[in-house]
């Protein structure tokens, strides 16, 4: 299928590794001009080289933090009028809410709620004026399957999703959609850091936790990043203009509910 987005411009936050890199790679394969913002120069350079080798498409990069005004300014200086915006930020490691300070909560909100909202604010009107826009927020299944050790992520990401629910419906008539992807367990460095933290907290081995989590999933495995990259690319496609305000699970069937 031709997704109809060749020549469009994308700004992908966190596109230097994991799920963000998979999204950037798939968009580049579709002929999108990809700009990647991430916090680490070394991983940015490596990802840009990998995408270039795989697709022949050069990738523009900038070292920037979605949670910071200076980072958002730097990303928009690199890509001032994106047609496609991917909001994606690392969630905090698991912990006990009794140990989280006000500063911990503010940092979580800045990265996973307020930063993405500010990026939407600064780009969505331009998309509407041009008659095309696709915004995808990479959130987490934890907003539907809340886990106590992920309270910072549960709270901040749920705030973003609640905000988007109304906003998405005010722009779809102008061919601008806003959706949220809710990934479950994926084989990424972020997932490995999460399991490593659980191992330290529980005294169980990394291998035991990693294997048990895969076996508990109906798919009996972790997701592959390229599966999410392809799903996200379709949400950014010309054909996806009738999909907006949705919270879309990609989790191997682990969410147990009917609705």
According to CATH, the homologous superfamily is: NAD(P)-binding Rossmann-like Domain
Total E-strand runs = 7
Q: Going across the major beta sheet, what is the strand order?
A: 3-2-1-4-5-6-7
User: How big is the Rg?
Assistant: 18 Å
Give the proportion of residues in helices. Answer: 40-55%
Shape: globular
- In percent, how much strand structure appears in the residues? 5-15%
Main sheet: strands, sense, barrel? 7 strands, parallel
Number of domains: 1
CATH class: Alpha Beta
CATH architecture: 3-Layer(aba) Sandwich
Chain-wise SSE layout:
Elements: E1 9-13, H1 18-29, E2 33-38, H2 41-55, E3 60-63, H3 69-78, E4 84-87, H4 102-130, E5 133-138, H5 151-171, E6 176-183, H6 189-202, H7 206-216, H8 225-235, E7 247-250
Parallel strand pairs: 1-2, 1-4, 2-3, 4-5, 5-6, 6-7
Helix pairs in contact: 1-2, 1-8, 4-5
Tags for this entry?
259 residues; alpha/beta; Rossmann fold; seven-stranded parallel beta sheet; 8 helices; 7 strands; globular
